[in-house]
Design a protein that fits this description.
By secondary structure, the protein is α/β, with parallel strands linked by helices. It has helices at 2-11, 19-32, 39-54, 64-81, 94-113, 124-129, 154-158, 170-178, 193-197, 206-219, 230-246; strands at 58-62, 85-87, 133-134, 140-141, 151-152, 162-166, 182-186, 200-202.
Amino acid sequence: MGRKLLTEAAADGLLADSALIAHGRGEAYDYLLGEATCESARAAITQSAILMKDAKRCVISVNGNAVALAAADLIRCAAVLQCPIEINIYYRTPERMTALSSRLDRAKKEVRENSAPNGWVGDWQTAVSDVKILGINPDSRIPNLDGPRANCCSEGILNADVIFVPLEDGDRCEALMKMGKKMIVVDLNPLSRTARRATVTIVDELMRMVPILLSDLVNVEPERALKWDNQANLDNSLAVMLRRLDE
């Protein structure tokens, strides 16, 4: 299903040429995980939900792959948190930005017409309608970062204290960490620079973990915060992969 969504998104002009290569690389690691959410990933998801709920200014940052794979569930997460979603891509063109923004707007309409997540209390239609989609008109830049991904919005990434980033790249993660931001990333490769630099790394497949994150955002209380060791989390995820290689 993920491959189908990505090939359709590529045909619709949402993705850069390298997007399918990146997805295939992630699939290889997912095979080693047994295509399942391991215990360390589950703990990382809960820790992420706590940090996002406790943030003063949370933002969800997305690229083309994230929009293609999980637009609706990311909209749901943003509605629960009442935070913006900001599009940030390296191969930036007006056509791609418009296509991604339009896809997110369509996802908002679909989510608004569906029922609220289990356990959520409030006016769901209003909560979804209030989710802002940022990125088309950036008004700021991330310091010490070159290239198009340095462009950002002051209402989103620039002034956020917690950033949830599915499918991040190492350079931007490092630059944002240097600004003092807490970075939550989804990365199937526990050895990548992004995974090793982030505050919390969820070593899991995006389509599989976002519904779990959504449930935790609704149901987990911030006072359940864990004493978090991200390196231990990565080591545990890598151990799962190595055990499967030995089987």
